[in-house]
Structure formats: C-alpha cells, structure tokens
Amino acid sequence: MNKRDDLFSTFPELRTKRLVLRQMTAADAEDLFGFYHDTKFKQYLDWHGPGSIDECVRMIGFWNNGFEEKIMLPWGISMHNNRELIGTIVIMPIRGTFEDAPRYPFTIAYDLKTAFWNKGFMTEALTAALDFCKKETGLHRIQAEVLPENAASLKVLEKLGFRREGLLSHYLMHESTKIFMNVVMMAMLLS
C-alpha cells in the first residue's frame, strides 16, 4: 500500500486551536442548508445553493463518494465544543485522482457561515488543510477561483501565500442568472 492509498483508508480529521475539520454526514445537511441560504453568504457564489435539506444530503453524499474515489478531500468545519457545521473546505485535483499528484494542480473551494466571518476561522482552517496536503499528497500547485468583489477571500489567500495570477474574464456563468462572471485566479506553488 502506498502513502496515498493509506491517506484514503480513513477520512483524515484535522484539529486546530479552535476547529475540527471532519467528514460530513447527512446529519450536517440542515446546517449546510442554513448557511447556503443566507443572502449575504450567497453574494459570492456562482449558484443559489442547494434548494432543500434533501439536496444538501445528496451533496454531502457526493462529496463523500468523491473521497472514496480519491478525487476530493471534503472537510466540514466545526468548533471543538460543538458539532454544528460552520463551513466547508473541498480540495481536489483538476484532473484525475490524488494518485496523479503532482502531475495536475489541485483546486480549493471553501465556505464559511457569515456569523464566523472576519474572525480568523477560515485562515486557521485553510492553514490546516494546506499543511495536510503539503505533507500527504505530493501536491505541487494549488489554485482558487475567487470573484473580484470578494476582497476578504482574496486577502485570506494572499495571507496564506497565494499569488494573483490574473483576471479570467467571463470565466463562469452563474447557474441561475446566466450572467457570465469574472474570477481572479489565485495560485500557490508548494514544491
């Protein structure tokens, strides 16, 4: 068994000073639905979020299947003293599986309930996830696509060592409005 097979034998739970990055279950669907339906939260998304708690259950199932297939690491974020889901981090290769690292870059996506914004929680969670990937996956490059108006997210990534590589014009179409959206490509090289 190689190191990456071992990585996917059980879900890697990570602990920080205040947070637990853990595997999500169907029991987290209500929390997930709650923060995806906050108007302030949705302003930086390219879709309107899941339409029901059942859709959240399916989304969590999709993420967990992705872990089993070695194509994503989908962490739920909770506080140490409370299982409430307050955010998510998903890291995945842009092609293939984690077994193909470092051949292909990874992409990272993350969300945080608005009540926890601007308190250092996402920086803390992303630091743990990135440190894990550096040590365990053979990662060479990781990138994130961020809407230009999401200044807080750009600031977090810059603090972690990501660099702005440019603006991708009309890169994404909003799932509901069908309006094309620009994104800033942020990336970091790890080896």
From TrEMBL:
Keywords: Transferase. GO terms for molecular function: protein-N-terminal-alanine acetyltransferase activity. SUPFAM superfamilies: Acyl-CoA N-acyltransferases (Nat) (SSF55729). Pfam families: Acetyltransf_3. InterPro entries: Acyl_CoA_acyltransferase (IPR016181), GNAT_dom (IPR000182), N-acetyltransferase (IPR051531). Residues 19-191 form the N-acetyltransferase domain. PROSITE patterns: GNAT (PS51186). One of its GO terms (cellular component) is cytoplasm. Gene3D superfamilies: 3.40.630.30. It comes from the Bacteria. The keyword Membrane does not apply. This is N-acetyltransferase.
